[in-house]
Amino acid sequence: MRKMNRKGLTLIELLIVVLILAALAAIAIPRITASATTAKANACKTNVDLINSQIEMYYSSAGTWPALTDVTGDPNYFPDGAPLCPFATTYGPLGTNHHIPEHVH
């Protein structure tokens, strides 16, 4: 009996590999997009907390509650510019407690 010298993959083997990769992608892609949305929401919450802490710092140094633009436009509080919401919404207005309320995304 002669041994066949086999090189490469058959069409069936190639189709099985493609199906396995498609199944893995179907599982992974929704998890990745959900993780990105969660990360954006957490970044937004952190930005709100940061702005509110800078408002508190302004109040402790000036003795009066600032307008939002007094804090976000001052390079002493935000040298790199005011933080932006990852969902492209604006922060504000200040609530009755002189803080920015949490965003719900």
Report on this structure.
This protein is an all-alpha fold and 105 residues long. It has a domain at 33-105. Helix content is 54%, strand content 0%. The longest helix is centred in the middle third of the chain and has 52 residues, at 11-62. The radius of gyration is 27 Å and the shape is rod-shaped. The mean pLDDT is 90.
In DSSP terms, counting alpha (H) and pi (I) runs of 4 or more, how many helices? Answer: 2
Please state the overall shape, judged from the principal axes of the Cα atoms. rod-shaped
Task: Please mark out the parts with pLDDT under 50 across 5 or more consecutive residues, or reply none.
Answer: none
Order of helices and strands: HH
- Share of helical residues: 40-55%
List the helices and strands and how they pair.
Layout: H1 11-62, H2 68-72
Summarize the structure.
This protein is mainly α and 105 residues long. 54% of the residues lie in helices and 0% in strands.
Features:
single chain, 105 residues, mainly alpha, 2 helices
